[in-house]
Amino acid sequence: MRVSFEELNAFLVDHFPQGAAYGALVDLGDGWAEMVLNVDEVHLRPGGTVSGPAMMALADVAMYAALLGKIGLVPLAVTTNLNINFLRKPVADVPIRARASLLKVGRTMAVGDVFIYSEGMKEPVAHSTLTYSIPPNKSEN
Questions:
Q1: What phi and psi values does residue 137 have, to the nearest 5 degrees?
Q2: What is the pTM of this model?
Q3: Residue numbers of the domain that contains 17
């Protein structure tokens, strides 16, 4: 792990403050990150369920955190693909938690997956796979 939990949290506050709307980092390890989103009215859609865009944003930021924890604070690492499967209805009045895990990290691309859970549910409510582009290291050019 190249970045500590504290370093990554400080980086996110300074360089990606809008990310707080999509969840808070709660744990970080070598190639993985965990985030939680406290669901409120802005995250709900008609019918009383957590919206797809809220879950997609949580998955994306969780993967960003896992990647930066592994490769270092590289602000221009960006999502190139995000696929999500909504598996079951999340509970509307409890937080949702995302666990992102890196599957492969190369020089220019990284692939990982994210499972999203409603607090208190054993089965995931969504599963996402993501690909990130990693900008070239200028010292390698």
A1: -75, 120
A2: 0.94
A3: 5-140
